[in-house]
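Hi all, posting the design record for the shared folder.

TITLE: backbone redesign
STEP: 1 of 1
STRUCTURE INPUT:
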């Protein structure tokens, strides 16, 4: 995670832990049980990204050092997402499964 952001260590910004690199920042937005969801913000041109780039994100304050070291971490980078797994609105027959092996790729 720290490598993704180019961060050497977790820092505290406005009372919350973040992983901040030169052109990117990872902000914990949700802490559910033993899982932490992070939002990834970066400057695609490689220019400096200030800590304040995370001000528009709602950062969870329930992440501490123990959670950083022991919990599972997931990264998102879109402004909004809708979880549709197991919902009746998902059209199961439209889902394609790609099976990869060293010898072949099969599209079901």
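Okay, here is what came back for every position:
SEQUENCE:
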């Amino acid at each position: 995670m720290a490598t993704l952001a180019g961060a050497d260590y977790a820092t505290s910004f406005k009372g919350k832990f973040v992983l901040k690199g030169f052109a990117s920042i990872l902000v914990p937005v949700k802490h559910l049980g033993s899982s932490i969801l992070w939002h990834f913000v970066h400057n695609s041109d490689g220019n400096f990204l200030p800590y304040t780039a995370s001000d528009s994100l709602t950062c969870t304050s329930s992440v501490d050092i123990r959670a950083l070291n022991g919990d599972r971490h997931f990264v998102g980078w879109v402004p909004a997402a809708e979880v549709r797994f197991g919902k009746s609105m998902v059209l199961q027959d439209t889902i394609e499964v790609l099976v990869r092996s060293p010898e072949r790729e099969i599209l079901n």
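COMMENT: Helices lie at 2-5, 65-70.
Let me know if anyone wants the other runs.
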